[in-house]
């Protein structure tokens, strides 16, 4: 007996949603989502086996999950995807790895020369009237499920932040248009913002630039960061 290949249930086309509703669901504009799809889809064909699921649906499901932190099952039941929980899980893994490998180093780049720094300085000055600023720095806590108590390499207590929740403390640096210039997500929630910056590649880069005579470029942050 020949079994018919299972198909997705009927779903609406998410790209036909009004722009404001689309952004509420996926946190990004249609233009940016299409850009992500076009940038990583060629690599998906090379690395991942064909699943019968349109690639744009995998990207939409991943963006929804990352933007809301909701359970995978809830994403799968949404009217625009109609994908099962296992398919959602595999899609998130696939899209996440493709973005990390093929887009991260291209889209997130800290200014490395005077021309790039001056462009950022101009944007900050035009928006806030502050001179010499090449980035705005802060830490943001991304809540996680506590690791098992038996996990020796990742004991759960080191992930408890000042609010008593388990998290990763992510260092972010942005410019005046909220474009991410640098990110460091290696540290647990108990690590202080200043400690993360102290061992970051960005700080080492700024120290090197300072020793070369670049004395007019600054990062700006809250009181959690020391003045140096």
Features:
4-stranded mixed β-sheet; alpha+beta; 228 residues
* Classification by helices and strands: alpha+beta
Main pleated-sheet profile = 4 strands, mixed
Order of helices and strands: HHHHHHHEEEHHE
Total strand count, please? Answer: 4
Give the quaternary arrangement of the chains.
Answer: single chain
Order of the strands making up the biggest sheet: 3-2-1-4
Span between termini: 74 Å
> What is the alpha-carbon Rg in Å?
21 Å
Strand content: 5-15%
Shape: globular
Outline the low-pLDDT stretches.
Answer: none
Share of residues in helices: 40-55%
Instruction: Report the total helices.
Output: 9
- Overall average residue pLDDT: 88
Question: In words, what does this structure look like?
Answer:
The model has no long low-confidence stretch (mean pLDDT 88). 43% of the residues lie in helices and 14% in strands. The relative contact order is 0.09. The longest helix is centred in the N-terminal third of the chain and has 18 residues, at 30-47. The N and C termini lie far apart (74 Å). It has a 4-stranded mixed β-sheet. Helix 2 (30-47) packs across helix 3 (55-68), helix 2 packs across helix 5 and helix 3 crosses helix 5. With 228 residues, the protein is α+β, with helices and mostly antiparallel strands. The protein is globular and about 55 Å long.
């Amino acid at each position: 007996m020949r079994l018919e290949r299972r198909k997705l249930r009927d779903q609406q086309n998410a790209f036909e949603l009004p722009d404001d509703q689309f952004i509420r669901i996926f946190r990004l504009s249609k233009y940016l989502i299409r850009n992500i799809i076009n940038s990583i889809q060629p690599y998906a064909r090379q690395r991942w086996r064909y699943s019968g699921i349109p690639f744009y649906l995998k990207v939409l499901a991943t963006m929804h999950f990352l933007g809301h932190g909701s359970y995978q099952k809830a994403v799968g039941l949404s009217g625009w995807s109609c994908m099962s929980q296992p398919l959602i899980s595999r899609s998130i893994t696939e899209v996440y790895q493709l973005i990390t490998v093929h887009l991260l180093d291209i889209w997130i780049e800290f200014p490395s020369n005077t021309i790039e720094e001056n462009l950022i300085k101009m944007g900050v000055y035009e928006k806030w009237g502050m001179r010499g600023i090449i980035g705005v720095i802060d830490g943001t806590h991304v809540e996680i499920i506590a690791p098992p108590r038996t996990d020796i390499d990742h004991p759960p207590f080191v992930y408890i932040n000042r609010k008593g929740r388990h998290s990763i403390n992510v260092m972010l640096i942005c410019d005046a248009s909220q474009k991410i210039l640098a990110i460091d997500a290696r540290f647990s929630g108990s690590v202080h913002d200043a400690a993360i910056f102290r061992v970051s590649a960005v700080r080492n880069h700024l120290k090197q630039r300072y020793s070369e005579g670049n004395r007019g470029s600054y990062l700006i942050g809250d009181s959690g960061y020391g003045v140096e």
